[in-house]
Design goal:
Order of helices and strands: HHHHHH
Shape: elongated
Helix content: over 70%
Strand content: under 5%
Distance between the termini: 12 Å
Radius of gyration: 21 Å
Number of helices: 6
Structural class: mainly alpha
Length: 172
């Protein structure tokens, strides 16, 4: 009876491990989609609103989902405090602080960091081109991640359940 309870617990643990891995994949894809939308929104806002960057970031933070809303609000407040500081540096520091909440691949995180470089250009056209480049890069990353999702989901489930079954065999 005790071994049966142990086997059930092992199967539940392996199911939980598979669910956790799949959840993190879905979270990464969801945040990458939000980042792609963010590039589109930033491009439109920079092109048409023409308001100061800290004000723009503060306004957009109310419209975005977490963790991006917190990132934009923090960046806005830091830019207001340090008007003489380098904008990409402030953006990079804020991104680094929000890194634990972001489930982004290294390539997507680099694209997020490059968004800060778009804020520093004095020419509107060069900023918009950099945002378009980031948008294209994020679309490629997202398409690749979506293509890999089904295979990785199967792999994580198979590995988790096989590890559980192997542990049950060792238990018996």
């Amino acid at each position: 009876m005790l071994k049966l309870a142990g086997c059930i617990c092992i199967l539940l643990a392996s199911s939980g491990m598979a669910y956790s891995c799949i959840y993190s994949l879905r979270k990464e894809i969801s945040q990458s989609e939000q980042l792609l939308d963010l590039f589109t929104v930033m491009e439109g806002e920079l092109a048409y609103s023409r308001c100061p960057l800290p004000e723009l970031l503060a306004r957009l933070s109310g419209q975005l989902a977490e963790p991006y809303s917190q990132l934009f609000l923090q960046s806005s407040s830091r830019m207001e405090e340090n008007r003489e500081a380098d904008i990409p540096t402030i953006w990079g520091q804020c991104c680094e602080q929000a890194r634990r909440q972001l489930f982004l691949s290294p390539q997507a995180y680099q694209a997020l960091l490059r968004m800060g470089e778009a804020f520093s250009y004095t020419s509107l056209e060069s900023s918009l081109q950099l945002l378009r480049l980031g948008q294209k890069k994020m679309a490629d990353i997202l398409a690749r991640r979506n293509g890999e999702f089904a295979g990785k989901r199967k792999l994580y489930c198979c590995l988790s359940y096989m590890a559980g079954l192997f542990s049950i065999i060792l238990l018996l």
